[in-house]
Amino acid sequence: MSGRFISTHSVVLVLPLNIHTLPERGGSVKAATAMSRPGGGFTTLSAAASMGAHAALASPLGTGPNSSTVRQQLASAGIQLLTQELVGDIGVAIQLLEADGSMTSVVTAGVESEPSRAALDSLVLKPGDVIHISGADLAVPSAVSVLAGWGAALPASVTLVLSIAQAVEQVPVWAWKQLLRRADVVTMNVRESHALQRNLNASEPGTDIRHLMRPDASLVRRIGAKGSQVHVNEDAPFIDIPAFSAVTVDTAGVGDTHIGTMCAALAQKHSLEEACRWANAAAAIAISHESALPVPSRAQVEDVLNTGKVQPLNL
Description:
The protein is an alpha/beta fold. The protein has helices at 41-50, 65-76, 117-121, 135-138, 141-152, 173-180, 190-203, 209-212, 254-267, 272-286, 298-307, and strands at residues 4-7, 11-18, 32-33, 37-40, 54-57, 80-81, 92-97, 103-107, 130-134, 159-163, 185-189, 218-222, 228-231, 239-241.
């Protein structure tokens, strides 16, 4: 029987701005704006739900208008909300999208930065559930102790997926160590991998990411146009999972789409290698169109898996 995908990855309202290039400090550039949309944890959960997983959000929403908009879109995507609303509203993320597809973000904090340990402890977890904690939330001082403590105490009957995220340098090393020791799967891109390794070594020379993890835990590296690499356990070789053919249009939300699709496949009892094949296919679709939304459908992902490339009708 399939487990649920439960994510604590917080949801914010995203305002994407398309620019030719980043301005120099103190400078200015013209930008074309798109419609605001929910981002962060919403993309991850939507990708999982689109693959047929039972997806649920375990991050707070508020009473404000941004939260109301997101709550409606969660319901439309078939995503369950597990937490009670807080007085206030969620934060906003400004995304600067350059012509080459790269993205820089500026994020404000709202009620999503105030998770409750009591609320998380009250969740009824079931064997086979896949739990996701994002490094983006560990960079928030008001959230890191709650999420790291709860994640480290999760029962062995559930799978903990830890994603490292862009803000890796802002997360206290003690939190990484605490969660790396419990995580069943750790996923990161190349930049995040190097940054985390530097931070660990700065704290304690000679410390390696893999050595902090359990021998039976798995590591996933997302390596852009080359796809991803899987290290199933400490004694196994790295396995290359090739990327699928696609034209890069917009990198916003591609990592979140990869993580959500991978977690959905894991919740549906696929092997990690197969889950990453599905995730690579979803990422190829996501990178081929502007905006992180809509997330790829299961039919689109299956088409890429069968043909090896993103077809024009998927764009």
